[in-house]
Amino acid sequence: MKNWKIVVLDGARTNPGDLSWEPLEALGELTVYPNTAPEELIAHMGDNEIVVLDKPVITRQILEACPALKLITLFATGFNNIDVRAARERGVTVCNAPGYSSYAVSQLALALLLEITTQVGRHDAALKAGLWQDNSYFCRVAPGLTEIAGKTVGIIGYGGIGRAFGRIMKAMGAELLVYSRHRHPELEDDHTHYVGLDELFARSEIISLHCPLNEDSRELINRESLAKMRDGTILINTARGGLIVEEDVAEALRSGRLRALGQDAFAVEPIRLDSPLLTAPNTFLTPHVGWAPRETRARLLGIVAENIRLFQAGKPQNVVNP
Question: Which of 17, 67, 161, 232 has a beta carbon 3.0–4.6 Å from 259's, enabling a disulfide?
Fold first, then answer.
């Protein structure tokens, strides 16, 4: 039986030490690098036939320098960091890991939305600062609390994560407007309707982004699209930072066009210290943690191992460059 050479280029992201590499070790001779700088890519990939990665950018030049390469499988659903056309031309299969984070990312999107509408952190801080004790009433009612029930929620991107978030919103009594490149009439019901982007922008009180980053969606939320939204719209982005223009969103927050922003992913990561989102009002920002629960990462590792096993068996799955 062939002994495949497998390398993980940035293993510390998916497995900082709380998971076992055994699922990959069982499939070949495994080398794991915690991280790989751009200038180290060719050396680390070397003569390995299978490369596992999350964020490193694989260009045509890198592919040409690694003739032994047969398979790239990602610790991610998105694959915009891989030149998939060049990979296909060189006979390199590229596989992603769809669906592994639907529960976790929709959970974080809900957490950001609840922080905006229910303000648990703000009220916890006020209570611990003694502001409730200074009040003669049995409760301390502050402005800004909002029910989700009855609100119109626009979901852009209706794949696994978008659908999971949609189910949560419907369970809380919201009405859904959905925009997606692929329309599935069987998913529509009395509380879920596919619409065009302009209608979604105009009617939604809450907008949540769950679409991939590509040339069609890059900078989707910009000055022009923000102008189409209702005053006081809540924006949630747990997808990709490149979907928004940070300067335009910050201005919309200052003007009141947006009531608040909850965001987990950024165009530059870690976020730039001069990002306008850091000083804009009513922002709730997390450091790209939506995908990171241990259970989610274990599921991801299992999908990648299965991608490799099936490729070795001549039955590749989750191929993005057929």
Answer: 232
